[in-house]
Model the fold of this input.
Amino acid sequence: MKKKRFFGIYYKHQTVDGYTLAVISSTSNEGDMIQVITNEKSYLIKDISSVDISFKGIRFDVQQEDISLTGYIGYGELLIPKKDIMSYYRFLPIECKHKIYSMYQSLSGEITLNNKVISFNNGSGYIEGDRGVNFPKEYLWINAINKEASITIAIATIPFKLFVIKGITTLITYKNKEYRFGTYNGAKILKLSKENIVIKKGKYLLSIDIPPNSGHPLKAPIKGDMIRYIHECPSSNIHYVLKHKERVIMDITHPYASIEYMFKD
Done:
């Protein structure tokens, strides 16, 4: 039987004070699926027609035993990367391919989640997607967004023919400029742990400090079947520093970053 290629899009919404609501719309051998993750927990939406999603916004009319979610979040102009985050790696026959649709967009509107009204006016949004047959066996993913600076870091083991490589796709947007760290442009991992990541590309150095964090379970694919569980912490404090030689380009602490760390100790 031919493996079905899953495709999922991740829509992140964050209020000005850091409340996060992310929606993952995906398809697999099991059919279409929607998952929702909040600061408190994660949910599997049984009726996918109760969530209407586009690149202009998302509308909810969810009523099930474990979650009541209604309302609308509108999107401002998407901050689309200047080129594909994977560069020419996207043409290789690898198990999972990553795409960023928007590094940042402003938000408007409000939702009611389990009788609590949450305003997303002046909030921050982000959109990315994955396609393939498997999520990487081991990987790290971090996303922090706001109007001034947004960062997405992905490091993953990638089986390719007889080899397994540790690939990097990292994009920073800061003051209307992009900074890219990728396997395709010579970026190298100097350190990778649950507490600290250091990536070097030429004369650029990116360092990220991560506090201890725990996450909520989400379904992920193995050979097109959503039978694996990963864990995402939707709001965690990270500190990242970008340097060129000895000059500090950016030194920011982001209190509401999303993190998935799936590397073995």
Notes: The mean pLDDT is 88. Residues 6-261 form one domain.
